[in-house]
Amino acid sequence: MIVMGLDLATRSGWAVRDSTRHRSSMQCGTFTVKEYEWEEKYAIAANLFDRLRKEYKPDFVCIERPEHGVRQFKKKGKPDLTGVEQTAMTINPAALQLTGIAGAIIGICQIKAIPYGTISANSWRPVCYGKGVKPPEGKDWKDLAIEMCQRESIVLPNTKAEQRDAAEAVGVCTCWHKSDVPQIEWMQKRFMDLRTGAYEQKRSAA
Prior knowledge:
Blueprint: E1 2-7, E2 11-18, E3 27-32, H1 38-56, E4 60-64, E5 72-79, E6 85-91, H2 93-111, E7 116-119, H3 121-129, H4 141-151, H5 160-174, H6 185-196, H7 198-205
Parallel strand pairs: 1-4, 4-7
Antiparallel strand pairs: 1-2, 2-3, 5-6
């Protein structure tokens, strides 16, 4: 069984595992749509994912779930005439783009009849790092993901920036069985067959 994990962003991490091989054989990398305009990002992301789909032929795709809302942040502005620093509320535009990128990937999965699920970071991280574990001072979650891959002898991309995204995709891929699958009958059935091994048995018998 081939499982693909995706940590989507304007530079997305991906990871693939063949369940018949050792965990250290997992392959991972990144693809980017940073240089494109808003709507172009979605089309390019779909195309880049489809290339990965053709190469690795995943039986299931697990996606880190985009936030369903957009957070607002305080942004410091210039002082007014009295010298008081002004603040305003703003949003991270990348969060809006992430939903579009996820939609493009999900559309490919549906068209190509590949079951998929989504999982929140709060769900997969405790499985990979241990319940209650948090990054120590001076590190973040992506640093923990890299360290996890190094312990497992999983080969990461060459640059630190790519390693950070690819390593988190490894975590997502690892926890595919805990993902939430859409309430679509064929997809739910395939997911259960994959989890129980029934899908492999059916494929071997065909």
